[in-house]
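Hi W.,

Here's what went into the run:
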Amino acid sequence: MKNFEFKNNNIYIYGLPDFDLPHTLDCGQAFRWSCNDKNVWSGVAYGKYLELEKLDDGSIVLYNTTKQDFYDIWFTYFDLERDYESIIVKLSENEILKKACEYSHGIRILNQEPFETLCSFIISQNNNIKRIKGIIERLCENFGEYKNGYYTFPTAEKLASLTIDDLAVLRAGFRAKYLLDAAKKVVSGEVDLNNLKNLPLDDARTELMKIVGVGPKVADCCLLFSHHHTTAFPKDVWIKRAMSVLFGDELPENAQEYAGIAQQYIFFYARDTKLLED
DNA sequence: TCCCAGGCTCTCT
DNA sequence: AGAGAGCATGGG
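Here's what came out:
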């Protein structure tokens, strides 16, 4: 049973085995986390910088954060209220999914800031992880807010005030115009990001796809990684390949309720192993 | 050099 | 409604 302890400005999380930092922070759902040579992870989310680490006894430490930030931001960000153990039990009724769960152990689905997630996955299309991270970094450095050594992700208002020429520094290619369209529609209220978690999946997807450059895959990434839609199922090239090889295109019945979480395990399993190479 | 990248839009049937 | 070219940029 998990519990939290607050001491010396740090937060300790005990009794939470289903939280692997590299799997969760480097599995392709978020792009602003990195690990130093001492296994300490650092990143910025919701305008806050955080360092965290898994200790030898299995506990997780969040360094230099307040109780308030923990409950306002990180508790939800790291999806700490969700019982992954029972989800994994359910998914493991299928033997192939059981293997994927074991291989991908400790992946948690993050609840990221909606506008950041939207921009990140717009940038991700027809792109590779290294370049995605570079473009996002330049986006923050050029248009985010500088705060004591780090940059926040730019607001929609800030981006909406820019021109396509301003965005040339990102070297985002054809995606720059999509970012502007997203920012403008969010600012005008034509797309209401804050209401997406209250809508049925199909309606939420349709809402996001009003943005030029947002198709079903990017929309589902947003819904899964920042709007608590755990049935959203982003279909990228890897998943299409994996689904075809592993399941004959159809996700097993026992996984439907948590399709998005299953998706992430399959994605990690398939991409990280040589599973799909002939 | 060439091929490809966590896709999408546009155009043409 | 389904298929296919083109897209900006740079990593391998």
